[in-house]
Amino acid sequence: MRITDKLKKTSSKRGIIFLLVSCHILTCLYTSNLHAKQDYWPTKTWRYSSPEAQGVDSDKLSVMLTEIRHRNYGIKNVTVIRNAYVIADANYYPYQDYLSHPIYSNKNSIVSGLTGIAIEKGYLQNTSQ
């Protein structure tokens, strides 16, 4: 077996393991939310709120969005959600809500978000576990 074949198998196994771990974490988080009394959970749409009503300083959000635009980071959209409410949603030209566009490298963002939730809920002790 060639080295490239071994690498492909290893990469494939890592992808499957990542998918299984992600599904497990999401299932744990979902079932823990079933026991919590919630009057709202986003389904097809999100609720919107002012940043201040959710404990966020809108001036800091404004500075962040302005920096993203001026520094040309290549970011197409920023959506900030706090307490299950959208508190900021910005598109950068030429992208619009109704236009689809490719998204790359979301795995790291999703995994880091899920890791933070898992640590907060006590499923993990730290990022090294």
Measured on Cα atoms, how large is the radius of gyration? Answer: 19 Å
Measured as a percent range, the helix fraction is 40-55%
Q: What order do the strands of the largest sheet run in, or round the barrel if closed?
A: 1-3-2
Structural class: mainly alpha
**What is the count of DSSP helices, taking H or I runs of 4+ residues?**
3
DSSP strand (E) fraction? Answer: 5-15%
Could you explain how this protein is built, in words?
With 129 residues, this protein is mainly alpha-helical. The protein is built from 3 helices and 3 strands. The protein has helices at residues 3-35, 58-71, 107-121; strands at residues 47-48, 77-82, 85-91.
Write the layout of secondary structure elements.
Layout (H helix, E strand, L loop, with lengths): L2 H33 L11 E2 L9 H14 L5 E6 L2 E7 L15 H15 L8
Parallel strand pairs: 1-3
Antiparallel strand pairs: 2-3
